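Q: Okay, next protein. This is Outer membrane protein, YaiO family from Chryseobacterium oranimense. I've checked the sequence twice, so it should be correct. Can you predict the 3D structure?
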Amino acid sequence: MINHLTSMKTYFGYLVLLVLVLLPLQIYAQQNASADELFAKARTAAFENKDYATSISLAKQALETAPDYTDISIFLGRVYTWNKDPESARAVFEDLGRKNIKDEDYFIAYASLEYWNDRYSEAKEIISKGLSSHPQSEALWLLKAKVEYADKNYIESEKAIKAVLAINPKNTEANSLAVRVHEFTYKNALSILYNYSHFDKQFDDDWHVVGLSYKRVTPIGAVIIRGNYANKFAEDGTQIELEAYPRLSKMFYLYVGGAYSNDVGLFPKYRTGVSLNANLPKSFEAEIGYRQLYFSKNIWMYTASVGKYYKNFWFNIRTYITPDNKNISHSYTGTVRYYTKSAQDYFGFQIGTGISPEENRNNLLENETFKLKTFKIGAEYNFSLKANMFSVGTMYYNQEYLPNQKGNQFDITLGYTRKF
């Protein structure tokens, strides 16, 4: 009987001990379940309803139930950021920092706050700490590339982009940013471009155009001066051009260009152009502007384009619209590029209709042949060897040069650029 009572006491003791162990776990699980429910509601309020005030309130309630729930704290910091309350967001992230949190998402959220508020030094310091814990973080390397680009540290931005593409060569944002950064990684560039054109019917003589240019990157954007020599219709002519690409903000920049030639017929006497360009979210880009050419009279052309980066690809569609008293002429060109190892290395493909003022054929605009039917298709290949860039391209045109009379044109283009 005594042994039986002893066994019962022992069993009862184990039972009490088990309850004491499991009860806190059950309470903690209930707390987490309640916090998860509030967290889910907070995310719905933020992402679907854009109701940041409600989302913040729900996230705070969740943290009262589960104060050590790191994901909710990081989310709360993000929502404060979206709600344009950087001080409250910073307080949340600083508290997490004191707890020595090492989550990748914490570093991304905190650094993004500082980046969006133009505190680039603080953002870089946070990213550096994050990369020490997560050296293969694609998101942190990409954020570093963006911060360095915004802070005009283009060499460091390019290094970060290379780190992203080493992890994921198809990262759309990195490929998009690589093209923009490339324009600033060297202060100077010398280029030479040669274009050869052969006609089967329209003209008896082949055309030759050579362009020599110097590009200088300034604090406000790139400036290019270019001299062109042309041999067309067995005649020689020259043209001088000046272009600038001033940056207006993180999103916008301008194209401003002008040219002059005393050899009218081979070139327009004057050429001007202005465009507003935008680097848009989701790796889109857009341009709208005008081009003006003067031969014996003015020709005004209005242009617009939309581009999109997707993984290693760049897609672009551009139009030129030329109104006159009788009708409106249209030109359309679609371009696809496939980038290989860098922004300077790609295969390109073009297809379109009409003549654009950027082509070496723009002197044909004088006689309004651009109002007749034209089809074009071509390809190009660009590749780089350190600071040397090479390009080769070909284009085929089928043009109605007189009503109901068509001819073919074949172009070959070779280019070389040396950056320093």
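A: Here is a summary of the prediction. The chain has two domains: 29-182, 188-419. The two ends are 98 Å apart (CA to CA).
Q: Noted. On to the next one.
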